[in-house]
Amino acid sequence: MPSAAQRLCRDVVADPHAPLVAAVAGPGGCGKTATLETLARIYRDAGVPVAREYTEDTSTALLVDDAHALDDGTLDRLRRLAVARTHRLVVAYRPWPRPPALSALGAVLGRCRLPVVLGRLDRAAVAARAADVLGHPPCDELTDFLFEQTNGIPSLVDRFVAALHETGRLADGRLVGQETIPDGVIEQFRHDLDCLDEQVRQVLLAKAAGVGVSACEGAFATGLLTDAGDLVPLARQAILSLTAAAPTPLMPARQAEAAALAGDLDTALRFTDQVIGDPRAPDRPRAVMVAAAVLARRGMLARGVDLYRWLGAPALGEHALVMVPALLGVGALSEAQHVLASAVTGPTLLAGAQHLTAQGLLDTITSTPAAALSRLARAAALLEPVGQTALLTDDPAALTAVVALHCGEFSIGESVLSGHLSPRHQLLRAWIVMRQGNLAAARALLDACDLLEPRDELFAAALAAAIARHAGDVVALTHSWARAREAVLHHTTDLYVLLPLGELAIAAARVGEPAWLAAHLADADQLLDDLGRPAFWAAPLHWARLQAAIVAESPQEAGQHATALARFAGSHPALADAARAWLRVLAGDIDVAVVERASRGLWAAGQSWEGARLAGQAAIRCRDRAAMSSLLALARELTSVDTPAQTQVATELLGTPLSGREREVAELVVSGLTYKQIGERLFISAKTVEHHVAKMRRRLGCATRSELFTQLRTLLTA
Known about the structure:
65% of the residues lie in helices and 3% in strands. The chain is mainly alpha-helical. Keywords: DNA-binding, Transcription, Transcription regulation.
């Protein structure tokens, strides 16, 4: 038993009736359960009853295992017991999953007593553990073999030694016979894999097969990976033995899925290509869905649609509904309606979310924004329990945010995105806060996103241009346009990128390069024509192109888009009214009442900056000093009413701008631990801790370490 666990047990032996609050943390198989069993035996020997489930009885010792799997309510009740410090409470948990309620409990436990952090055994400890099982010391050769195969994971050492001993593979502390894994060990691994989260299981399977995927936190928390992210040799051999009986054509599709879930899109496409190109492969539907999802992230939604059509909706079965968002995205309205009408919705959460997503997106074309948002928000809620393992062309939360941005329902977009930390979700949050007027928060979120795929890079480049335009920063706009030129080259036009495309049209006009986007805008026009020019999607793009025409000083083009907006006056009255007002302003016909009505209409529709710009430009062109003064006052009003100040820091609007891991690091930083101690606690390197701290310091705009500590304490207290 590690020294920290021994100290805890000695303290309990010394006074088993004293209150105690402690945490036992570590990856799977490192001895958390064994430590609790030892404590239970000590308490029982002292006459203290032991409870394993929540109780407020102060006469018992409450020993809770696998707290990472408990619900938030139970974790919160345990936290309150810990705060009281009147109970005997020991809680054991893995470093992942790490819900906020567990982080809060862990912080309280850590303040009461330094946690018992369990990890791998060194070579000497492996030898001692093997000796306990065998009854005599193992030879050096056997010790080296055990240490290499198990990477010092206590439970694996115990399993392996016991199995080798029972099968007669050990004699006098030496290994005899072939160095293969006993069947009993393999069957135990089968049980372990069945108990894992699907994403973690797929990552481990891919690692065993040699796929170069990135390891997720959940995979490290199993204890089956080395610090370098490789599978422990014993685990790799066992997993390969379990998968060896599967037909080989099934493996590449599964490997592709695991690679995509882990973010290795190149590997995912390589494996899907193997399956799709093999007419004998039985798992083609899975490979096609993986490929289509990856291609969408790569900015090639149309290519994904080609794959769906090639396979055919019947072959997808209950997953045929994944085709609908992709088909609508490329303008295939009638085909999407046919798939939606003929598809059978399965009983799973994923199938229900797919149906709501398909119908919600169709509502943006054939029904109302309210109906669309309702269905999409429900789809996002349904998908939350399985979202990490669902591969779709786009997820409902992101699509809800895109729809909310188009119709000015920012609070709905923020609500649905809450808790999502992927770059795509963070970029959409940045768009929302930018439209609300908080450029500092938008910039902070944008700066936190790096290593983006083409779809996200297009949104990021357009967002950078939008922030520069709203800030009036011509230099920044020029720099962002250079980034945008590159992003546009790698992305085709689809329905879901009309928002950034419109913003880039304005930027292109500002820098004098409208021809760079001409082909993409022509594709957008054709796409909207194919869909019947739905007002929901067409009107915002016409508005952006009207602004581009104004910047380019092209009254004729501005008139064309104003005329188009007039046709959408029934569903977008604010944009139609503002377009008419702009034409009059450009012609020098300044009517204060008309401009004020149009500007306030834009503000009410979520376009406060655009409303202020209309009022400001009208004031510049106004010859009447009283009217000019009135319009300038209106412009100032619209940039301040219900809009955060430009200098407001990101935390004031967004709450804590920290990821789950950053919050854990922050809690330990403010508690006074060193980077090395924090790394040992969280099972990461000290260098990684330093990286997290530096990133938080940049994001919060802290010039000094003390300033960072102050900010973190404020955030964590809130």
